[in-house]
């Protein structure tokens, strides 16, 4: 807004018109600034959401690999316990038969 425009409004419409125009100009300027800030915040939030989703995706991939590794280790451990169990059974059977011979 330039000063000449305000002076013309003051001469033609009086002070209330100048105050109303200035108020509308201020409100419009403030609304535009606020809309710009909201857009900047939304863009920043969107970028942060993308990064967060990437971190979650990466963590899920790591967790899946770890789960597979743990499953393999558990299966190997279970097989070793079965082997040990059969070894003990065989040993105790041998002990029984050897004890009976004496």
Describe this entry's structure for a reader.
The chain has 102 residues and is an all-alpha fold. The protein has a domain at 71-102. Helix content is 96%, strand content 0%. It has two helices and no strands. Helix 1 crosses helix 2 (15-101). The longest helix is centred in the middle third of the chain and has 87 residues, at 15-101.
Please outline what is shown here.
The chain is an all-alpha fold and 102 residues long. It has helices at 3-13, 15-101.
Characteristics:
102 residues, 0% strand
- Major sheet size, sense and barrel closure: none
Low-pLDDT sequence parts? none
Percent of sequence in beta strands: under 5%
- Ends apart, CA distance between termini: 118 Å
Rg, Cα atoms, Å: 41 Å
List the total number of helices.
Answer: 2
What is the average per-residue confidence, as pLDDT, rounded to a whole number?
87
Class derived from helix and strand content: mainly alpha
Topology:
Layout: H1 3-13, H2 15-101
């Amino acid at each position: 807004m330039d000063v000449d425009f305000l002076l013309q409004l003051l001469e033609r419409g009086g002070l209330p018109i100048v105050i109303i125009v200035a108020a509308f100009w201020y409100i419009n300027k403030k609304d535009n600034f606020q809309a710009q800030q909201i857009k900047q915040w939304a863009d920043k939030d969107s970028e942060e959401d993308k990064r967060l989703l990437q971190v979650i995706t990466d963590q899920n991939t790591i967790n899946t690999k770890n789960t597979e590794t743990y499953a393999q280790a558990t299966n190997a451990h279970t097989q070793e316990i079965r082997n040990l169990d059969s070894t003990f059974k065989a040993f105790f059977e041998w002990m029984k038969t050897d004890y009976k011979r004496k």
